[in-house]
Design brief:
Length: about 375
Amino acid sequence: MKELVYDTTLEIHMNNLVSNLNYFKSLLKPTTKIMVMVKAFSYGLGTYDVAKLLEENNVNYLGVANTFEGIELRNAGIKLPIMVMKPEVDSFDLVKEYSLTPTIFSQHALTRLIDSIDNSNPMSISIKIDTGMHRLGFDEGEIPKLLETLNAHPFLKVESVFSHLAAAEDRNEDVFTNQQITQFKTVANLISNNLNYSIDKHILNSTGIVRFNKAQMDMVRLGIGLYGVSTDEITQQELLPASTLKSKIAQIKHIKKGETIGYNRIGIAKKNLIIATIPVGYADGLNRNLSNGNWNMIVNNQKAPIVGNICMDMVMIDITSIDCNVGDEAFIFSEKNSITEMAKCIGTIPYEILTSYSPRVKRVFKY
Ligand SMILES: *Cc1c(COP(=O)(O)O)cnc(C)c1O
């Protein structure tokens, strides 16, 4: 079969990911383990390739959200330990079959696990504690019952106990964050003192590593930082962008003053314009709120504002003052027009931008 051709590509800068990983490593004690979160298609970049790179760079753990994400990695040949953050309660037999480590976040989930797998050989689990996020996890008051159940089922091996910070990036919430850390330590010690083997304790995400470094404990869970984004300005300067989204000019048109561009005639030419049609649309993940001047692509190093409404598969940009031709590259986001700025433009966070580019956008891994 001939190779397929793509005009719109998400280039993943693999060496930049390694550089970002090493930056976070430099903030940690040599003995602190690193779990890297590769959930949601490795924050939109591509599950397997990123996981493989991380395996080659000796991270200790991978983290996914769902059991099927973990299975996909195992089927692709990933051997690293994989923690599943919110395993489907009907999937515990699969979790075991694929040697994944399930996060157990409630007594209900624990009971389902015990009922659904055979107990003839040990199984590693991870316990999640709720210290204020109020999403998933055991409350402090539920720990005695948890310990009782664990003691009655010694084939379950608690590999780690963890919690998640709700506002690590928010200076105004530092008192709350420190409370979360303190409460976590209390609960984690309660659990570990009850077991006759050692367990890993962890609570820090990317921003946590930077801002609450003393709480790194046995492991940290690196996510968005690996992918080149930080809310902390100093950290942001140290990180390299993980990806660039680019396309190619499909057609160029000369528009007369008073004519309109695109659906609903929202894009009105206030003067004679030259516009370029770019073959990327909201079905590729280009948020439609970026329409009508709310975002600039970069063409020939210059800003080219979006004109009119973004279509499903295409978008028009103003190139009146830019020297360019059909086939030239248009950068939807790049170092010059970053996803952090894009997120600000439409009132969201870089996480959502990163994870919104659809599978239709071809991922190209550059080493
Ligand atoms: C996604 C996730 C992380 C990583 O968070 P970042 O803010 O991206 O660093 C850490 N812990 C848990 C439980 C997560 O789900």
